[in-house]
């Protein structure tokens, strides 16, 4: 079962990652062969996507950092109510 799901996932990723020939012609050189659909309409599209990527990476970094190393050491912290609920 796990192998079937993995193979289906890899096939789906392979389909999504590579653009079809019609879409490749509509894309700028930077994105050619990667995405489907029409390309960006202006330079603002690149700026918006770049800023969004930076925000997502920043959020991901700090989310993972605070999940694995929360840093609260006080005995009265609310997390201790959940952890020490026995």
Intertermini distance: 37 Å
**Structural class of the secondary structure composition?**
mainly alpha
Rough outline: elongated
Let me know the largest β-sheet: none
On the 0 to 100 scale, the average pLDDT is 78
Describe the structure.
This protein has 86 residues and is mainly α. It is 62% helix and 0% strand. The chain has four helices and no strands. The protein has helices at residues 2-17, 21-26, 43-68, 79-83. The chain is elongated. It starts with a helix and ends with a helix.
Overview in brief:
The chain has 86 residues and is mostly helical. It is built from four helices and no strands.
Tags for this model:
86 residues; mainly alpha; elongated
Helices and strands, with pairings:
Elements: H1 2-17, H2 21-26, H3 43-68, H4 79-83
